[in-house]
């Protein structure tokens, strides 16, 4: 059993762990993919360099998020820092996806101009079946928007990860605030208990003082009163 706040914190932490794992796999895959198309000159520089940067940033933010989500206090600030980086990463992924969608003709032109360097064949006069089977340039042109779809999917993933990261950080801060309030209340209870004990001791001392005063002072007062009455007679 756990309180609502603790259960919510565990839920957001678990969701963040899953999203971090997916983003780490995507970041590594994107880094390897961008290096592959870059080193083999399968894509222009303006395309594979941003892909490489996004992949590296994905791996970095994932590691920071995992460190911040751990119980170590020394790494606690990595969680909000990774959230801020996620905003920049999401904007970059969305912008890169839009650029790839809008630059489809530029990618096709690049493939046709560098077909000898890329060792691909661009044929215009084959039928559709022959083109699919023999024209490697056609296959690359057909799949050129796959990175764009990946960028949009990663954009949605970053939004979800940002929400989980922010909520986890807020839940932990609220729990720490509750602990501080609880410690303050405990301190006030201790002070109140000490004051009550002191008051009880003073009250008991006053009762004992009155008791012994009546026990030892009262007979003397009675004798003095009797003597005064005898003198008057």
Automatic annotation (TrEMBL):
Q: Name one GO cellular component term.
A: membrane
Query: According to the lineage, what is the superkingdom?
Result: Eukaryota
- Work out whether the entry's keyword set contains Plastid: no
The transmembrane segments are: 12-36, 48-69, 81-101, 148-169
Question: Keywords, A to Z?
Answer: Membrane, Transmembrane, Transmembrane helix
Q: How does it sit in the membrane?
A: Multi-pass membrane protein
Where does it localize? Membrane
One Pfam family it belongs to: Tetraspanin
| Official protein name in the record | Uncharacterized protein
From which lineage does this chain's organism come? Eukaryota, Sar, Stramenopiles, Oomycota, Peronosporomycetes
């Amino acid at each position: 059993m756990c309180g609502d706040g603790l259960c919510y914190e565990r839920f957001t932490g678990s969701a963040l762990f899953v999203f971090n794992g997916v983003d780490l796999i995507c970041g590594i895959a994107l880094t390897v993919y961008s290096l592959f198309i870059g080193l083999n000159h399968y894509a222009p520089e303006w395309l594979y360099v941003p892909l490489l940067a996004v992949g590296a940033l994905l791996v970095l933010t994932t590691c920071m998020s995992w460190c911040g989500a751990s119980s170590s206090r020394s790494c606690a600030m990595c969680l909000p820092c990774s959230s801020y980086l996620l905003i920049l990463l999401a904007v970059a992924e969305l912008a890169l996806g839009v650029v790839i969608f809008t630059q489809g003709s530029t990618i096709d032109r690049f493939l046709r101009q560098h077909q000898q360097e890329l060792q691909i064949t661009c044929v215009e006069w084959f039928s559709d079946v022959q083109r699919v089977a023999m024209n490697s340039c056609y296959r690359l042109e057909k799949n050129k928007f796959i990175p764009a779809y990946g960028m949009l999917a990663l954009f949605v993933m970053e939004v979800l990860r940002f929400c989980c990261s922010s909520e986890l950080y807020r839940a932990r801060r609220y729990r720490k605030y509750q602990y501080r309030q609880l410690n303050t209340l405990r301190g006030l209870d201790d002070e109140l208990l000490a004051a009550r004990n002191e008051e009880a001791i003073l009250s008991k001392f006053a009762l004992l003082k009155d008791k012994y005063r009546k026990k030892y002072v009262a007979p003397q007062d009675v004798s003095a009163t009797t003597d005064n009455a005898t003198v008057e007679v």
